[in-house]
Amino acid sequence: MFVPPARAVMVLVLSVVLSACSLPSPADRAAQAWPESTQWHVTDVRVTVPEALSVSEENAFFPDADIVWRCSPGGDRHAQITALMERALRQGAAHLDGPEPVRLEAVVSRFHGVSQRTRYTFGGVHDIRFALSVHSARTGAPLGPEIAVHTRLRALSGARAIEADARGETQTARVTRHVAAVVAGHLGAEVAPLPRPPAPQACTAP
Questions:
Q1: What are the pLDDT digits (tens) for 18-48?
Q2: Cα(202)–Cα(72) distance, rounded to whole angstroms?
Q3: pTM for the full predicted model
Q4: CA dihedral in degrees (122, 131, 202, 24; nearest 10)?
Q5: May I ask the CATH architecture of the domain 6-186?
């Protein structure tokens, strides 16, 4: 009886798992969370990435940590994700032009991208979870319920990943636009594919 090599079995298992992880998440199709958002305009955003969230720099297929982020070669991953999420929230709320000033807040609980090993083989998925809330800019009082967002974005792989980096479509740029679109959907915008960046962009400045 033929017994497939262990490496072949591993490849098959990884392919199945990653395919399953790439399915659209409910958050990506979510209805508007706050109908009153037409009356808002965002004056401030606040993002919290708790220091308690674990970080892995291991170049494994599935690093076991809350935070896995490799667009930048190193540095403070908490700070990098905070900056990325702040940009995403601002972009996602850009369509709001109502009279009421509000503050948008997000608390990240998971930001699991792909390792170099995964990106240049299977591609994997960016798995992101955060709590999203809106507060009055005048009083700080919450406006409506906090919502739990869980969104996933298929990561580019192999030659496609290399080509995307060359034209400025970095992981940071793709994830920022994706999160912005999800936030915009919760804030009542028509969610459509966002345009690619017109010029090359570094990982640290999408």
A1: 443 444 444 454 556 788 899 999 999 999 9
A2: 9
A3: 0.78
A4: 30
A5: 3-Layer(aba) Sandwich (3.40)
